[in-house]
């Protein structure tokens, strides 16, 4: 059994980014994608490259990290690299050095791929990593807010490689599903969020699911400290909305 590589550069996986925490309604069009990613994470699905994309808050980052969490549980070697963090550390970092040797791992997950736009060195480094991973018989999972065809990538060879991947678009939750997801997440955190409170949060806080879940975490911490139930007045006080 191989040991997962330590996450470098301060990169870490969120504890709550698991398949169990990803909300799916009974008729959710994302169910098939999630099932495929679960088999991909365990190594049962031999697909070499999967490209997952969707608008902000649709759950792309959550699912990439869920794949890594599941891969770790299966004893697979992996690496999760969010470009939003890496590019935020400045241009002095050589992408070829960062990506060097990752092809030796069984699974490489690269998030925020849309941020490659305007970064030719990163595009070149990813192109070579893509080829090394595929030639080595390992797997690559890519996440972005744009489809492969929608990316403004100057390196034509990279864009063609991305279009060869198995591509899935995540469908965002509608409002009723967001309310259900908030209430389910609250139960997982050990408390019940009344529907009227969930509706209040949905219509006054940022509407993408990640932002809504962050509001829920803030409310949970505040209610524990104040020893108060989460009501609409309490939400107004804590979130100032």
Automatic annotation (TrEMBL):
Keyword Mitochondrion attributed? no
Q: Please verify whether the record's keywords include Manganese.
A: no
Tell me the GO BP annotations in alphabetical order: DNA replication initiation; negative regulation of DNA-templated DNA replication initiation
Mind listing the UniProt keywords for this protein, alphabetically? DNA replication
Record Pfam families: Bac_DnaA (PF00308), Hda_lid (PF22688)
According to the entry, every stretch annotated as the Chromosomal replication initiator protein DnaA ATPAse domain falls at: 14-168
What InterPro entries does its record include?
A: Chromosome_initiator_DnaA-like, DnaA_dom, Hda, Hda_lid, P-loop_NTPase
Indicate the family of this protein: Belongs to the DnaA family.
Q: What is this protein called?
A: Regulatory inactivation of DnaA Hda protein
């Amino acid at each position: 059994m191989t040991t997962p590589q330590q996450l470098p550069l301060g990169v870490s996986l969120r504890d709550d980014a698991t398949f169990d925490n990803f909300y799916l309604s009974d008729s959710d069009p994302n169910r098939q994608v999630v099932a495929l990613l679960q088999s991909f994470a365990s190594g049962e699905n031999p697909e070499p490259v999967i490209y997952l994309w969707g608008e902000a808050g649709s759950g792309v980052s959550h699912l990439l990290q869920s794949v890594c969490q599941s891969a770790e549980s299966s004893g697979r070697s992996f690496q999760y690299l969010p470009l939003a963090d890496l590019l935020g550390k400045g241009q002095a970092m050589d992408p070829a050095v960062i990506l060097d040797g990752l092809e030796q791992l069984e699974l490489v997950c690269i998030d925020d791929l849309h941020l490659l736009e305007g970064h030719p060195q990163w595009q070149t480094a990813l192109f070579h990593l893509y080829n090394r991973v595929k030639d080595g018989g390992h797997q690559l999972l890519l996440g972005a807010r744009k489809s492969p065809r929608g990316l403004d990538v100057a390196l034509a060879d990279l864009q063609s490689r991305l279009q060869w991947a198995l591509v899935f678009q995540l469908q965002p939750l509608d409002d009723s599903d967001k309310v259900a997801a908030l209430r389910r997440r609250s139960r997982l955190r050990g408390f019940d969020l009344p529907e009227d409170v969930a509706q209040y949060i949905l219509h006054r806080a940022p509407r993408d699911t990640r932002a809504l879940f962050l509001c829920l975490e803030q409310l949970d911490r505040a209610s524990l400290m104040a020893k108060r139930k989460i009501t609409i007045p309490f939400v107004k006080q804590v979130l100032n909305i």
